[in-house]
Write a structure and sequence with these properties.
With about 325 residues, the protein is mostly beta strands. The chain is built from two helices and 23 strands.
Length: about 325
């Protein structure tokens, strides 16, 4: 009997250790100071202390990974994912058409951005400011034929508090032509690019401005296109005033970017490349690299404050996500 009891005890301990291992694999947290990054089966979350900064969905989404939530320093989320009027508006997302296949709209045989792996998940500091982030590898695929049209390496990081008073998100994408494919052509509507859909309360009377000071070209209704270094929107998010600014790096192709804005019937802001007029061909020997940033403030801020943060961001070196705690996370939550 003692032998049977001991065997059962060993099995119980082994089973308990197995459960611990499974739990650890399903939720990994990387922390170094006040900022921490947590990866789970469907989402990545970044916090500063107990305050949320970002929620990124990468597996439970049917067509494209996206930043589902992004918070001001005061804890106000400004993003809205997949509203009833436009289900394909996924909060903060990047989408264009590739070789004629639409990755933006999702109504008729849309393209799919498939998460492959996170090649790095990290917490670190840059210019004494803590940040948490990750690099994700994605395949842009035609789901009807399984043809791989484009490869993307996407690095997203969120910076902790500093004297700017803002939450700052950095978005970097590098696009390459896969395999034996010689080129890929990007095109699309005048709003295709890095787009933001806001919480419903921000649709009421948003105020838009940009670094050029010009209202821009009227496209239709309240929709405008204007070229500028940055573009900002001020509104009330659930009764609290906030300011959201998007930055385009001077190294980006076709800088200064063409900002798409609209204020009715809802607010929208997108960094575009004028693809509706000038389709862009990426060749196998010349990848496309894009750098953007999104800054969030509580309350209303002056143009000069936005411009100071923009210039500071431009002066920083491109972010390279290198894990300072554990080096090999290339197989962290692969596809499949």
């Amino acid at each position: 009997m003692k032998g049977i009891t001991a065997m059962r005890t060993h099995r119980s301990v082994a089973f308990a250790l197995l459960l611990v291992a499974i739990f650890a694999a399903s939720s990994k947290s990387f922390a170094d100071g006040p900022v921490r990054v947590t990866t789970e089966a469907n989402v990545v979350s970044i916090h500063e202390g107990s305050s949320p900064l970002l929620r990124y969905a990468y597996r439970s989404v049917p067509y494209k990974p996206c930043v589902q939530q992004l918070f001001t320093p005061g804890g106000v989320n400004v993003l809205r994912d997949s509203p009833a009027d436009h289900k394909h508006h996924h909060a903060l997302m990047y989408a264009v058409s590739v070789d004629g296949l639409n990755f933006w709209e999702e109504q008729k045989q849309p393209g799919r951005q498939m998460h492959k792996v996170f090649s790095d998940v990290t917490v670190s500091t840059q210019n004494d400011v803590p940040h948490g982030g990750f690099t994700e590898q994605l395949d842009w695929v035609n789901p009807e034929t399984d043809e791989l049209l484009l490869n993307e390496s996407r690095t997203i990081a969120v910076y902790g508090q500093d004297d700017s008073g803002a939450t700052l998100l950095s978005w970097q994408s590098s696009f390459t032509v896969p395999g034996k494919k010689e080129s890929a052509t990007l095109s699309g509507s005048h709003y295709f690019g890095l787009g933001m859909r806001f919480v419903e309360t921000m649709d009421a009377g948003p105020q838009i401005r940009n670094s050029s000071g010009r209202p821009g070209e009227i496209v239709r209704g309240s929709e405008r296109l204007v070229r500028a270094r940055w573009c900002a929107l001020a509104a009330n998010a659930d009764g609290k005033p906030v300011t959201v600014a998007m930055f385009c790096h001077p190294d980006n192709l076709r800088h200064p970017t063409h900002w798409f804005t609209m204020t009715a019937p809802f607010a929208y802001l997108s960094a575009t490349m004028n693809l509706h007029r000038e389709p862009l061909k990426i060749t196998s020997d010349e990848p496309l690299r894009l750098r953007y940033a999104v800054a969030l403030w509580d309350g209303s801020v002056e143009d000069s404050q936005i411009d100071r943060l923009y210039r500071r961001w431009v002066e920083d070196k491109p972010l390279t996500v290198v894990n300072s705690r554990e080096q090999n996370h290339s197989m962290l939550y692969p596809s499949g």
